[in-house]
Amino acid sequence: MRSIVEPGSQAEQVGRLLVAVFVVIALPSLPLGNYIAYPFSILTTWFHEMGHGMAALVTGQHFEQLSIYADGSGVADSAVASDASVFTRAAIAAGGPLGPVLAGAALILASSRERLWRPALWLTAGAIAVSVVLYVRASPVGFTVLPLVAAGLGLIAWKAPAGAVRFMLQFLGMLGALSMLRDFNYLFSEEAVIGGNRILSDTGQIESLLWLPHWVWAIVILTVSAVIIGASLKFALAEKPQLPRGPKPPANVLQFKRTNDTSRR
After folding, report:
1. ∠ CA(141), CA(142), CA(144), 5° rounding?
2. I want to staple 150 with a disulfide (CB 3.0 to 4.6 A). Which of 22, 128, 160, 178 is the partner?
3. Quick check: is 41 in a domain?
4. Helix, strand or coil, per DSSP, at residue 66
5. What is the pLDDT of residues 225-254, one digit of tens each?
6. In a domain, 29, yes or no
7. Which domain holds residue 186?
């Protein structure tokens, strides 16, 4: 039976991404789905906390450690210079909610280029493994779940068929992209309880630095996230130009090619 969707077409890409979205949304509702989804929930938290850490490093500060708790929450600790500007501190706070979105957009883009499928998954697995050694501290969940996730992604990148590798990239990409919906209530909360301690949320920290209410910054972060994901999807789903092919000659026709060889004249 002939497929109605051409392999590699825009329609196939859209279909695969829709399947990935469905799996991300429906997985917790399936039998044992919460257990299956748990490592990916921890991975989303890792994206978030690494977002804080990477923002600290990019702004010239020091990323000290991250901790992930059994309930899926986490915290990243950075040493910020006493003379650092309020904009530097706000950028570090915003790096958390934007971290999963940026990672998701990068994975979605990688899923649109076959030559990047396995390298992107290897890179993700390697980044998780290295972060456990360098930054994860006092976190039994981080020390157990993250290495298992890294090993699983590495195994898929090494042994799985190409289609499975691409789907994992799309799944992880949509997982990061949809994290802004998972964190919706958190973004619109001024405070949160993490690790048994009540602290300012990311938007609460930005409010304390840049004066506007935390819910305004929540809207800004959600808008930026939507633009980033929308742009990555638009690029990933764009029709790839194909070179036109000439008509194929009949099987009983011989073809001869003439070349100009001036050395034999």
Report:
1. 65
2. 128
3. yes
4. strand
5. 999 999 998 888 876 555 455 555 555 555
6. yes
7. 10-264
Specify the DSSP class assigned to residue 250.
P
State the Cα angle at 177 between 119 and 110, rounded to 5°. 20
Task: Provide the domain count of the chain.
Answer: 1
4 inside domain: no
| DSSP H or E run through 79 | strand 74-79
Quick: pLDDT tens for 64-106. Answer: 999 999 988 999 999 999 999 999 999 999 999 999 999 999 9
Secondary structure element (H or E) that encloses residue 62, with its range: strand 62-68
Chain centroid, CA 137 distance in Å: 23
**What is the DSSP pairing of strand 197-200 with strand 191-194?**
antiparallel
DSSP secondary structure letters along 172-205: HHHHHHTHHHHTHHHHT-SEEEETTEEEE-HHHH
Q: How far apart are the first and last CA of the chain?
A: 56
Burial class (CB in 10 A: 0-12, 13-18, 19+), 26: exposed
Distance CA 42, CA 169 (A): 17
Q: Is residue 191 a contact partner of residue 41, using CB atoms and an 8 Å limit?
A: no
Rounded CA-CA distance 220/228 in Å is: 12
Rounded-to-integer distance, Cα 125 and Cα 147, Å: 9
Tell me phi and psi for residue 31, to 5 degrees. -55, 130
Query: What does the alpha-carbon distance between residue 12 and residue 5 come to, in Å, rounded to a whole number?
Result: 6
62-68 and 191-194 beta bridge pairing: unpaired
Helix runs in the chain, H state only: 10-26, 33-58, 86-110, 117-134, 140-159, 162-177, 179-182, 184-187, 202-210, 214-236
Residue 231 has, within 13 A of its CA and on its CB side, a CA count of 10
CA–CA separation, 104 and 19 (whole Å): 16
Q: What is the DSSP letter of 116?
A: G
Measured N-to-C along each axis, helices 162-177 and 10-26 cross at an angle, to the nearest 10 degrees, of: 60
